[in-house]
């Protein structure tokens, strides 16, 4: 796309609603068809860098189709008008023929300039056409026009109303237009900085940053033109607006002005956010609210402390927790992080459609971003993505282990607030966090929080913690926030920076606490490339709509809470949507194919076939694929995936990619050449790393794996009821490991997968009996292998609990299970090295502990029951 407007852009325009010859209407304000030297220079030097995305362009085109477009700018600005002249030429949009108080004579070609100059001289002795007369002519000829809601502030103007009454004139004259009119709100955001309660000296000298005068706008333009962006509000069809209004013209004009101003406010809010308050102001406002005072008093009574001492302690905790967001710090931090990411990642692919959905949802209430948590990089990614794509970055709920100097200060000034690792049982921490979250949402700030509570060391989702999400939901239920939009999200890393640390933790080594020294040492990551990063969003979920669907009567009283089961239902729905955000990369596919292979080695040709088969299967499951996968399949004519057996053809397309992945896995695999065939085998010490990446896509295969494992427990025939019970047992045992499809009962899911296996010819069901054809055993064994490490880990833990006895603790169990697991692997009682995982042992212990409490049996009995159910499976 050319950066300089050309004649062809104007020639291709066919504005809808046009009546008569366009050239009959000439007004000094009309946009130029052929830019003069000055506009060409502005375009090539500055305007070409302004982001004007396809969504905005298409909105204008659709709104202009069959209607006369009347564009509306918030504030009179020659600079903005010139930019839109450039942009409308560039994207072949309808050129404006009239705008009040604008003269583009200086920006026309030299020939046109002198002609215009001559006309100006001749008009000195004639009556000048008023702007009312100019608008009337434009409307009568159905010409595209442009209006300003407000006059610009002058340098010496203090206070006063800047409203431009010309909109009232437009309303009076609009009936003269022979075609329907659509008003299209436009704005160029030259400065993303939020409005602040703190007024700087620049604000005093140059005026309100949200309604800037010429000098302030020009300075913002020079500083930010490379990051500026265009926003198009929701078009307003004038006829439809008139039909909904029964008032007098003055009332109608006021309502129209309010509707247009609201569009500017809503679009700006997603970019700049609410008015920015410092930490001291937020803390002061929280401390004065009656609910906070009442909750602190209740906590004082429960803790046996005086109200004054409790309040002082609560405010101290609040000061340690609160973010002190400062946009200039964020800008510097984001620039630094951008440079860091350019060094260690080969690229970042961002779901821009998801960002558009977030921007739209933000019109209805603040955004709460709930991403997966795979890496410390997660804290940095979303702020960078939002900042670089013109959205206000969220306040981030970070662990208080990240307050170390100097990063703690940088994080805090960039929007992080710090919460204790666990607030369960700590009354005052809970009160402080609840009211802080409530305040952020009430004031309209966006929040980023990780409901998993910690980074996943296994590469798959962790079952959600409900505490902070419950606070968000209750803020809506009590009416503190009118609504909140929850956005599930995920970052897919081809390689995770913390991979070595995760492997060490799985082997039972202590986790290294984050500090400045540790951060400095991590600088070695700068010498490593970690592949591509994929940032994906699921559609926003309105909390208010969800609560209404759950028949929650709102507003609930202060001090009451939404039932925890409703919160849990919402949390698992969010986690399921997060799983659907993960992107399948060649790295995941190679790791998956290698790790589930049950033999000692695999030939490269066989790996290619398995790679292709996995792509075909995942496409059927509607997985998201990395852009290079889809691009290569399209180029090979294999996208969409053909229904016929195409695994081999797909695998050959990706041979180079597979070999590149194998090269990066040289420390985890052995490669040898036998009789001209390349044979690959996974080193025992490399299985943990491959298992991590396999788990990145495991959620697509859990249902298949559970049914396959249940089927392989018996070699020939089995009753359908026994298969069903075995699947129920397995899905219950692994409920802390996997996120099952929300809103579907076990019975419905069982029938779904049973029907799928039957149609695929993997099983035969007749007279209440299930049989497995010999041809299906290899596929079922592959799918069962997905679950095998979990089964072996849980088996080790159950035996360890029984060995230790009723006084067993999680710490003792994990430590002993590591020794026992290594022994069992060495003697062949378990097959997989990755089964000896301290991380998985902890989840296994928690399951047995929860089962004992739920079934009201001793923990030893719960371990025996679980062991029995596991040993019934292969």
Topology:
Blueprint: H1 7-11, H2 37-45, H3 54-64, E1 68-75, H4 78-90, H5 110-123, H6 131-140, E2 145-150, H7 166-173, E3 181-189, H8 201-206, H9 214-224, E4 229-232, E5 236-237, H10 238-243, H11 249-272, H12 279-287, H13 290-303, H14 307-321, H15 327-344, E6 347-350, H16 352-361, E7 367-371, H17 378-388, E8 395-399, H18 407-413, E9 416-419, H19 427-442, E10 447-448, H20 467-477, E11 485-493, H21 499-506, H22 516-521, E12 532-537, E13 541-542, H23 543-549, H24 564-579, E14 583-584, H25 586-595, E15 602-603, H26 604-620, E16 624-625, H27 627-635, H28 647-653, H29 655-664, E17 669-674, E18 677-682, H30 687-694, H31 702-711, E19 717-719, H32 720-733, H33 746-759, E20 764-766, E21 769-771, H34 777-804, H35 810-827, H36 838-855, H37 859-871
Parallel strand pairs: 1-2, 1-3, 6-12, 7-10, 7-11, 8-9, 8-10, 14-16
Antiparallel strand pairs: 3-4, 3-5, 11-12, 11-13, 15-18, 17-18, 19-21, 20-21
Helix pairs in contact: 6-7, 7-11, 13-14, 13-19, 14-19, 15-17, 19-20, 25-26, 25-30, 26-28, 31-32, 31-34, 34-35, 34-36, 34-37, 35-36, 36-37
């Amino acid at each position: 796309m050319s950066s300089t407007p050309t004649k062809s852009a104007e020639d291709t325009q066919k504005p809808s609603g046009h009546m008569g010859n366009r050239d009959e209407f000439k007004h000094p304000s009309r946009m130029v068809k052929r830019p003069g030297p000055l506009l060409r220079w502005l375009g090539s030097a500055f305007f070409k860098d302004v982001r004007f995305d396809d969504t905005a362009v298409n909105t204008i085109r659709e709104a202009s189709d069959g209607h006369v477009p009347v564009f509306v700018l918030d504030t009179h600005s020659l600079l903005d008008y010139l930019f839109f002249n450039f942009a409308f030429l560039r994207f072949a949009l309808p050129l404006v023929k009239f705008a009040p108080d604008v003269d583009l004579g200086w920006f026309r070609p030299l020939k046109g300039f002198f002609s215009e100059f001559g006309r100006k001289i001749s008009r000195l002795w004639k009556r000048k056409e008023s702007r009312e007369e100019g608008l009337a002519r434009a409307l009568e000829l159905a010409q595209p026009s442009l209006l300003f809601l407000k006059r610009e502030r002058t340098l010496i103007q203090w206070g006063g109303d800047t409203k431009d009454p010309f909109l009232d004139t437009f309303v009076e004259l609009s009936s003269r237009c022979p075609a329907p009119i659509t008003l299209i709100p436009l704005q160029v955001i030259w400065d993303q900085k939020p409005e602040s309660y703190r007024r700087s000296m620049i604000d005093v000298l140059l005026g309100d940053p949200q309604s800037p005068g010429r000098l302030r706008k020009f300075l913002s333009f020079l500083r930010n033109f490379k990051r500026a962006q265009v926003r198009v509000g929701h078009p307003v069809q004038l006829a439809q607006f008139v039909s909904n209004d029964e008032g007098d013209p003055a009332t109608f004009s006021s309502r129209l002005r309010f509707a247009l101003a609201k569009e500017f406010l809503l679009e700006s809010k997603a970019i700049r956010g609410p008015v920015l308050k410092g930490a001291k102001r937020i803390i002061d406002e929280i401390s004065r609210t009656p609910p906070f005072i009442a909750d602190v008093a209740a906590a004082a009574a429960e803790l046996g402390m005086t109200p004054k001492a409790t309040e002082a302690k609560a405010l101290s905790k609040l000061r340690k927790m609160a973010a002190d967001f400062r946009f200039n710090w964020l800008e510097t931090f984001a620039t630094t992080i951008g440079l860091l990411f350019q060094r260690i990642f080969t690229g970042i692919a961002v779901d821009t459609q998801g960002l558009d959905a977030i921007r739209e949802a933000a019109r209805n209430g603040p955004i709460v971003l709930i991403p997966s948590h795979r890496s410390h990089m997660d804290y940095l990614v979303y702020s960078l993505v939002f900042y670089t794509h013109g959205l206000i970055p969220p306040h981030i709920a970070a662990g208080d282990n990240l307050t170390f100097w100097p990063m703690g200060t940088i994080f805090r000034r960039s929007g992080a607030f710090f919460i204790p690792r666990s607030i369960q049982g700590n009354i005052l921490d809970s009160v402080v966090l609840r009211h802080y979250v409530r305040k952020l949402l009430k004031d309209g700030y966006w929040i980023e929080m990780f409901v998993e509570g910690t980074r996943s060391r296994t590469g798959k989702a962790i079952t959600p913690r409900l505490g902070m999400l419950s606070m968000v939901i209750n803020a809506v239920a009590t009416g503190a926030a009118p609504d909140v939009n929850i956005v599930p999200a995920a970052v897919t890393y081809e390689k995770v920076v913390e991979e070595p640390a995760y492997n060490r933790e799985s082997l039972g080594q202590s986790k290294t606490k984050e500090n400045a020294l540790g951060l400095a040492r991590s600088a070695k990551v700068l010498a490593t490339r970690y592949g591509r990063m994929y940032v994906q969003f699921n559609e926003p979920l309105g909390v208010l709509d969800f609560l209404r669907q759950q028949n929650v009567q709102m507003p609930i009283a202060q001090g009451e809470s939404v039932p925890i089961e409703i919160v849990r239902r919402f949390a698992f729905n969010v986690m399921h949507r997060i799983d659907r955000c993960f992107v399948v990369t060649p790295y995941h596919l190679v790791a998956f194919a290698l790790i589930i292979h049950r033999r000692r080695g695999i030939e490269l040709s066989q790996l290619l076939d398995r790679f292709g088969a996995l792509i075909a299967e995942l496409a059927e499951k509607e997985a998201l694929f990395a852009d290079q996968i889809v691009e290569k399949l399209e180029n090979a004519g294999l996208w969409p995936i053909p229904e016929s057996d195409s695994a081999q053809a797909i695998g050959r397309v990706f041979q180079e990619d597979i070999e590149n992945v194998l090269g990066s896995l040289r420390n985890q695999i052995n490669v040898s050449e036998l009789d001209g065939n390349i044979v690959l085998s996974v080193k025992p010490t490399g299985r943990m790393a491959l298992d991590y990446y396999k788990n990145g896509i495991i959620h697509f295969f859990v249902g298949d794996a559970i049914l396959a494992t249940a089927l392989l427990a018996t070699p020939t025939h089995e009753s359908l009821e026994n298969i069903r019970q075995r699947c129920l047992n397995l899905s219950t045992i692994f409920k802390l490991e996997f996120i099952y499809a929300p809103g579907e009962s076990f019975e419905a899911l069982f029938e779904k997968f049973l029907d799928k296996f039957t149609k695929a010819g993997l099983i035969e069901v007749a007279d209440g009996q299930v049989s497995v054809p010999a041809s299906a055993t290899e596929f079922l064994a592959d799918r069962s292998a997905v679950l095998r490490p979990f089964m072996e880990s849980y088996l080790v833990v159950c035996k360890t609990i029984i060995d230790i006895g009723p006084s067993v603790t999680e710490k003792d169990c994990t430590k002993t299970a590591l020794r026992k697991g290594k022994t069992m692997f060495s003697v062949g009682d378990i097959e997989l090295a990755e089964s000896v995982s301290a991380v998985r042992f902890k989840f296994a212990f928690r399951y047995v502990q929860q089962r004992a409490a739920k079934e009201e049996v001793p923990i030893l009995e719960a371990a025996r029951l679980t062991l029995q159910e596991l040993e019934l499976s292969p």
